[in-house]
Amino acid sequence: MKKTVFCIIAHPDDEAFGPSGTLALLAKNHDVHVICVTDGGSDPRFHKIGGKKLSTLRVEELNASARVLGVKHVHMLNYRDGTLSHNLYHEIAEKITVLVKKHNPSFMITTELRGISGHLDHVAVAMISSYVFRENRAIDAIWYNCTNKNSSNLMKHYFIFFPEGFDRDDVDLVVDIKKVFLKKVAAARCHKTQIKDALRVIAKWTISPKEEWFFVEKRREPISLPTSFIP
To answer: Which residue, 150, 164, 193, 197, is most buried by CB atoms nearer than 10 A?
Structure first.
């Protein structure tokens, strides 16, 4: 029986721009679920493309990306992009906990606690995911996706503040994604409403090592990893 993995993200595209290579590898022998907390749209009254709401398009793009990566389960919590404030934390945590009890994940993946980019929705989801992990003792581990200093330097003017990345020796797990790199690129290209950002990150990936980095907090051993995870 396949073990279940949860990847908890803030927005449609966070799965592709983040740990998509790892998700593609895991999908070969795990049951991977992506839980997306927002629908990727801000105020839906003012965002339509070709007659469709931006949020509708972004959910369609997420589902297309999931198919590319081999992810068969996408759960939308349907909060509005940019609204994940403190007063929603417990409500969101409870919704994720319902899914935890239903699907019994062995481990969870989310962003590191600064949200990689400093985006406050990312930070909120990382904090909420950490709480869910702490409160649900059956989950073996949580993996926090992070980036390197070179990548953060390239993106430092993207937001008002982009936290500095890490050195390779700082992290707990380095995943070799060379075998699924083309899937990672294809998943990013699925996000057509975000194509400017997609092309920016694809260009960065092309000149970077084909790796994804994680901090890992384990509750118990062992965690079964595909042999392709060995760098």
So the answer is: 193
